[in-house]
Amino acid sequence: MNPSKGARGRPQESPEARDRGGALTVAVTVAAAVVLNLVIYGIGRAAGGGFRFTAAGQAAEVDAITVVGFTVLPLLTGMTLAAVLARIWPWAVPAGLAVAPVIALGTIPVMTIPADFDDASTITLALCHVALVPVTAAGLLALRRRGGHVAARYGGGAGQGQGSLDQ
To answer: Total domain count for the chain?
Structure first.
């Protein structure tokens, strides 16, 4: 095999380039989710959603900053964890592809539905959770395509032929 090519015939990247690529993938994924959720939130506001609820006996409201925070913090944490773990554990991305939708969708009945939002707000915020599923999946698949994990660098890993370190 050509020493400048990886096991799948792609040019090999330096670890530094791979790190930058992984960080860029995480950043683009989070930014896309923020934009998408703000668009959904804006549509919900235009549809008459008040986004007010009661928390600890006090009136509270979900505003755009809250939507950004509740999008960025969990997604940035999860995508960063996947990117870091994928470098040493080949199953990190497939595990993320299974776990991320469960978390995104599972928080709808735990957080959104129990709150005393009006219908437009409940539907809008639930859609924000749903929107995270394809965005997160695309980001995780981009991480996998980058070959950021050990198995991908050597031709093995999920859905691929088993390679060896000798290749």
So the answer is: 1
